[in-house]
Queue: 3 jobs
Job 1
Amino acid sequence: MAQKQWSQVTGLKPLKFDTGTVAPEKCLFGAMLNIAAVLCIATIYVRYKQVHALSPEENLIIKLNKAGLVLGILSCLGLSLVANFQKTTLFFAHVSGAVLTFGMGSLYMFVQTILSYQMQPKIHGKQVFWIRLLLVIWCGVSAFSMLTCSSILYSGDFGTDLVQKLHWNPEDKGYVLHMVTTAAEWSMSFSFFGFFLTYIRDFQKISLRVETNLHGLTLYDTAPCPVIDERTRLLSRDF
């Protein structure tokens, strides 16, 4: 009886992306990941513009900044793929999205950490760099553990239906590898969240606004508009 209850409890510890495999969970999970991808792109772009404004003439920083923008966008694209293609439906598309999310995301964190090193102590203090470096190391250890255990799990003799398998019991073959992979995947996700939180102090120095330019009095009017450009805040207050 106790073993059965333990099996039910362990069955509630799925891989991060397995939580979005079965309806209705997959609907909410997919919507949340798509929203998260859009917010991440916005954050990455604001960070790109901030670094560009702070160091407009440093060639190395400019190249790293552009590389970070591309890597960040690819990571967000992968997150959207994971959200819309479940593992049990289109395994290849799901895995490709996961590789983009975690792979490009890890490289993005690494590039941003190098930028932090290049920009200190002139732009910001050394503390920010060390915090981001620790998060990158955390991410790297989690990624290594996840890749190693998942490779052994899927290449070994642990069954033929691992892709479709959502619930694991302690007596199943490969259970330990599955649990280590699960823990490493969640750990890697939390390292991503922590890294984005390090932008809070940086973004306190930024104000975002929307500028509206009217080129005509109506939608059919091609004559220049005498109305002065309207400028409104992007948010209700400075971000």
Job 2
Amino acid sequence: MATKIGMMDSAYFVGRSEILSWINSTLHLNLSKVEEACSGAVHCQLMDAAYPGMVPMHKVNFDAKSEYEMIQNFKVLQDVFNKLKITKHIEVSKLVKGRPLDNLEFMQWMKRYCDSVNGGVLQSYNALERRETSKGGKEASKKGNTSHSSAKGSAAASRPQVSQNARKNEASANSGNQAAHVSKPPSHGITAYDEQITTLKLSIDSLEKERDFYFAKLRDIEILCQSPEIENLPVVGAVRKILYAVDDDASVVAEAQVMLSAHQKETISHSSPISEVPSDEKLSLDTQKRKNIINLDVDVAGITTLSPRQRVTDASDVHCSGSPLMTY
């Protein structure tokens, strides 16, 4: 069961026209835009079509206008999801706003899920009869039937008008056609504008989502930089310098790199265990060490050449001089 579908799944590449055709043919409606289903009533009946009798249609409001009424429909839908153990998250706050992209994505998921139930085959589902128990369901059914009948009536009415114009002379026909072109705006031009507006709305919604995503990432970095354990580190200071830069200037990154390089050099100079000694002082120290070693060797050689009596005499001289090293 397709309860979890990734964003790169083929379900999210289904176009608006195919989605609208599926909704209208399944529920006998006449929606012209996907966002017209933002009240949640259409979603509830689509689930009722997939699982007949599962949705309490008497609680569904097809005449919902306010966000409060729409939320009640989505509560019914959420209860059905819970019964069926469907883990799909419903972003109600975005759907009730009527945003085209959010409603399109959720309806794409609905189509994929309903197609996965019994292979998408509906067994003798009477959408009009099931909708009659809902609030505003009869009106929704009438709108669908009226739109179909009006389309047929307009096609039939155009035929006698064409025959009447054919009986007129050529001059009056040409003038009538010119007046008609001037007075009536071309319908295909209006349709093209509607499609452009819808495309721009989808593009705006996509850009807003991308903006919110990256802003959330920057906010997470800012919170991390404010942690007491790392807020005094040089690398954190460099990150904050870039993060809080007002102007979009490349020199900010260069300044942050200079800060890190300066700290690295300072750390190396302080951490060196060997202090540098001038060459003159080092030479004098080596000379003094050599002299001490020579004197020590001479003293040892002189002591070894003395007789035992001379050694005792020297020792007594040291004792008389008051040295604390002799204890007679």
Job 3
Amino acid sequence: MAREECKALLDALNKTTACYHHLVLTVGGSADSQNLREELQKTRQKARELAVTTGARLTVALRNRGLTAEDRTEFERLWVAFSGCLDILEADMQRALALGAAFPLHTPLRPLVRTGVTGDSSRVAARALSARSLSHQAERDFDVSDLKELEREVLQVGEMINDMEMKVNVPRWTVQAQQTAGAELLSSNSMGASSVGAVSVEERSRSCNPSKALAATLFSAVLLAAVALALSVVKLG
């Protein structure tokens, strides 16, 4: 039960972190707005809550000396995936802090970058937050106070990562993947793409038949010789 719970928590954290990464990419662009900054705040708070809960569950599980070898291997794999999510979240929070400071909403120091992206990002945030409505009342000083809060939260995430490494020592290079590289290409979700790739590879292999290539070369040589002979006859005439 503990392993399945940790998997579910890690899956939710992974999706929320990916959502936050997507939203951060639009800060400072033509789609930047008050709603985007508020969605960023709610999404990172959700990610931090999930990170705290997931880290606590994994820490308790890995410090249990009664774990079987199979369970420990699985929990270590989940721990490495969890550490990767935290690293990405911390990097994106730092990126959001830098972009938010460079592109303030109400007292802009420079024009927003015209990225060509228009519209809001409420759909992405709604999927991560499971919220039906993300309409908020704009506050003039929201971005300023949010940047101060974000700066504190970046430090907290960094402290969380250091605390994790002190409590549980799982070197990432000692954890082996359960699947071989590229195994996800054989899954049902990518079956269509794989079949298309197989067809294209097969067509390329057919087009590179050595006997056909030799015949095409000989035909080209004969054609060139005929053209040269025709030109010489025209000149002599």
